[in-house]
């Protein structure tokens, strides 16, 4: 498509200067850019389908890591006595 309609991550380094010159830096243009960025972020990270095995797996993995970090000194002390 046209260079002005491409997202920043799809613009090549050599085209960056031209892409910036096509941007709208008026207050309405900046507000539109912020709104578009927020909608993209929201769709990717916040408004995701909830549930399923992946969500439960991530929750369990997080709990295991948190539990291990809370008990690290205990594990380290007992492991040292066991082998030495």
Q: Please state the CA-atom Rg, rounded to the nearest Å.
A: 24 Å
Largest sheet: none
Q: Helix/strand/pairing class, anyone?
A: mainly alpha
Helix coverage percent: 55-70%
Could you tell me how far the N terminus lies from the C terminus, measured between alpha carbons in angstroms?
67 Å
Beta content comes to under 5%
Shape, please? elongated
Parts with pLDDT < 50 across at least 5 consecutive residues: none
- H/E element order: HHHH
Whole-number total of structural domains: 1
**Helical element count?**
4
Mean pLDDT over all positions: 80
User: Would you count the extended β strands for me?
Assistant: 0
What would your notes on this structure say?
The protein is mainly α and 84 residues long. It is built from four helices and no strands. The longest helix has 20 residues, at 27-46. The protein is elongated. 0% of the residues are buried. The mean pLDDT is 80.
SSE order and pairing:
Blueprint: H1 16-21, H2 27-46, H3 52-70, H4 72-83
Q: What's this entry about, in short?
A:
The chain has helices at 16-21, 27-46, 52-70, 72-83. The protein has 84 residues and is mainly alpha-helical. It is elongated and about 65 Å long.
Features:
84 residues, mainly alpha, ATP synthesis, 4 helices, single chain, ion transport
């Amino acid at each position: 498509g046209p260079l002005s309609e491409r997202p920043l991550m799809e613009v090549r380094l050599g085209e960056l200067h031209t892409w910036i010159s096509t941007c709208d830096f008026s207050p309405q243009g900046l507000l539109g850019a912020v709104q578009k960025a927020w909608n993209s972020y929201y769709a990717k990270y916040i408004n995701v389908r909830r549930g399923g095995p992946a969500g439960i797996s991530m929750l369990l993995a997080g709990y295991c890591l948190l539990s291990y970090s809370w008990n690290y000194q205990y594990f380290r002390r007992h492991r040292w006595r066991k082998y030495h």
